[in-house]
Design goal:
single chain, alpha+beta, two-stranded antiparallel sheet, 4 helices, 5 strands
Length: 109
């Protein structure tokens, strides 16, 4: 997956990120389902993300100055008006975010 990201981003003026198309049915709501979202065109962002250094620096600075919350490098790039490339990642490249993720990662390793 990393090789695909590098190959895809080398000639791109902005850059991109590894991501997976959403396979699950996605629900919106708080304590109860309020809606089912169309998963077509939805992707799960992964790391690493690869952007031109100057473009990323300027995007992060602009987000900070303008009080824009960014959740990853790609969201800063998007807030600056760019459209990052989506490069198909891998299920093996899963995020370790929640406590259960650490347990799964330990078992996988």
């Amino acid at each position: 997956a990393l090789g695909r990201l590098i190959d895809a981003c080398l000639a791109d003026p902005v850059g991109g990120l590894l991501a997976l198309p959403v396979a699950d049915t996605v629900k919106g709501g708080q304590d109860r389902v309020e809606r089912t979202l169309d998963r077509n065109g939805l992707w799960l962002a992964q790391t690493p993300q690869m952007f031109r250094a100057g473009v990323l620096r300027d995007a992060l600075t602009a987000a900070s100055v303008n009080g824009i919350t960014v959740t990853d490098e790609a969201s800063a790039i998007e807030a600056a008006g760019y459209a990052p490339l989506l490069v198909t990642g891998s299920m093996r490249n899963f995020k370790v975010t929640w406590p259960d993720d650490f347990e799964l990662m330990e078992k996988w390793l």
